[in-house]
Design goal:
This protein has 119 residues and is of the alpha+beta class. A five-stranded antiparallel beta sheet has the order 1-2-3-4-5, with no helix packed on it. The longest helix is centred in the first third of the chain and has 9 residues.
């Protein structure tokens, strides 16, 4: 039996300001006139398995007047050593990465070129 740590979060009724996002993510939202994002429901589940270093992450969010977004990821943390044999930054082996966003919400966002995003 593997020893694991689990954390979960469930929130109902949250607001987020688009100004808090990275410019690459915030610009298309501001262009589509989304300045404040109302999240009706958000659930997060994270698990870490000590023996294998495996991490699991699941998220679901219902964003008002936009979309329902589901995300799931799994990876394994791999220890690494530098040339001197000292512990270094770990590597990640991704075994699952899934993001679901309905096509109907993608059409709501205007196309923004990379040149416009850099301004």
């Amino acid at each position: 039996m593997a020893i694991r740590s689990e954390a979960s979060l469930a929130k109902i009724g949250m607001q987020g300001n688009v100004a808090c996002l990275q410019p690459e993510a915030g610009l298309p939202l501001r262009t589509a006139d989304y300045n404040v994002i109302d999240v009706d429901q958000l659930t997060l589940q994270a698990t870490y398995v000590y023996r294998t270093g495996e991490t699991l992450f699941d998220m679901a969010a219902a964003v008002a007047d936009f979309a329902v977004i589901d995300m799931s990821a799994a990876n394994t943390i791999l220890p690494r050593r530098d040339a001197m044999g000292q512990p270094s930054d770990p590597a990640l082996r991704v075994s699952r990465a899934v993001l679901s966003v309905p096509a109907s919400c993608v059409r709501k966002l205007p196309a923004v070129s990379r040149r416009a995003a850099r301004r």
